[in-house]
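Please complete every field before forwarding. Incomplete forms are returned to the sender.

SECTION A: IDENTIFIERS
Entry label: holo-527
Bound molecule: magnesium ion
Molecule representation: SMILES string

SECTION B: INPUTS
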Amino acid sequence: MSFVQVRDLWQAYGDRSILERVNVDVAEGEFISIVGASGCGKSTFLRMLLAEERPTRGSIRIDGGEPALEPNRERGVVFQKYSVFPHLTVRDNLIAGQSFGTRWGALFGGAKAAARANADDMLAKIGLNHVADQYPASLSGGMQQRLAIAQALIAKPRVLLLDEPFGALDPGTRVQMHEFLQALRDETGMTVFMVTHDLEEGFKLGDRVLVFDKPRWDPHDPGAYGATITYDFDARDGGIPFQHLNPPTTKDITDAL
Amino acid sequence: MRLINKTPARAGAVFLAALPFIVIAIAYAIGSDIRLSANPQDKLLPAPSTIWDTAVRLFTEPDKRTRDILLWKDTWASLIRLGVGVAVSAVISLTLGMVIGLLPYARAGLSGFVAVLSMVPPLALLPILFIVFGLGELSKIVLIVIGITPFMTRDLAQRVLDIPREQIVKAQTLGASSGVIALRVALPQILPRLISNIRLSLGSAWLFLIAAEAVASNVGLGYRIFLVRRYLAMDVILTYVMWITLLAFVIDWALRRLSRRAFPWMEAGL
Ligand SMILES: Nc1ncnc2c1ncn2[C@@H]1O[C@H](COP(=O)(O)OP(=O)(O)O)[C@@H](O)[C@H]1O
Ligand SMILES: [Mg+2]
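SECTION C: PREDICTED COMPLEX
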């Protein structure tokens, strides 16, 4: 059984259909890139994965669990902006990733020291230890997004959702961020969904690239039909297909006979 | 060069800032001089020197009967009323504002009510307050609270709603409960706004305080002004007015400093 299971998902706002009949299965550890025209419902899909919104029809299950009713610790998220807390220092943002789940949202004594050490490890890893005591507003866009990703990861979600996380960054910073994200992902083996409007980025980072588009179109009523997944590309090995067909083993052949 | 692009140098800016005060002072001195030379007994515009003498007397000489220096007694009484009134308003508006801003059920039930409440003219309620709470301290404090709380509540609720949705969602994905979101995400970001709200509301708070003291009191800055009005003691009134202005200015300045000190993250991006 697949790790993330999306079944017959529909979403409509009033009588405007945004998504229809979205079905997809994702294995644990896969990196899914989501591309599509602006306004076609990519963020809407991500919001439903996040359980910030509930679908009009259909369901999303993670690891066979019940569909979630609200965002929870299973799903980490990074948005294009506003993903870190402006009133907390860089280090405290990472501590928040560990303390917000407690009764008072704060840690004390040994747990606090451990969270701090944990945060400092993470800061060293993401190259932000020199700005640990600064506030996010004084960081560059790329540093803020690195912090946001680290903050999401430090809470150990099962699925990481990224909505155009590098959309506001300049091209050079983007390339750095790609390397950063790939390294983190190789290390954690996290299941990732990333919305991007940059096809190249989608293919570079993703194992699969899902394309959202409207299969049906009513010229008299553009809101009548929603978008769905029209292509599901294998993007491993630079997009060259058939690299992972397993040759049959002797056992397979004897079993077949 | 366009007028909008012309900026004064530092010395020029200081001079321009002082100019209105100098103009007013000179205009007053001239007006006072004209009236006093026509009628030395004139009380409407006492000479600046008279005001100065009166001020020195008010600040230093105790009352013959009670041996208290009345001005300090008045100041103390008024500041206590003002402080308690503003503090109570701050606590109520902060709590209500957060509840309305964060909880859709509370918003549905309360936001309309608070909007209507903020339209009630507080001074029109003063007689009712005197009847209900008596002529003591309570009615004056309640007037301040009623006068400024609805506005502050509305503004704080709006500020909570203005916190980007992304932050609230992010906190939930980190496992935060409603309480933790209120305490660790909304509250710290709303506190600077509370302080600027208090600064904005202090003007109204003084107005309500002086009005209440004028109507029924036996001590307080507003009480004294309206008392000596009967004797046309303009020198006393002017001293009190300038004293109140100075107090208001110092309080405002202190709050602004507090805000800068306490919330360094507000200026991190500048
Ligand atoms: N809460 C909402 N209510 C009504 N319409 C919405 C809502 N959220 C998104 N939409 C509409 O749904 C469409 C898809 O939006 P979105 O998922 O943000 O697109 P994108 O693919 O660019 O991320 C847009 O036309 C948007 O106007
Ligand atoms: Mg979007």
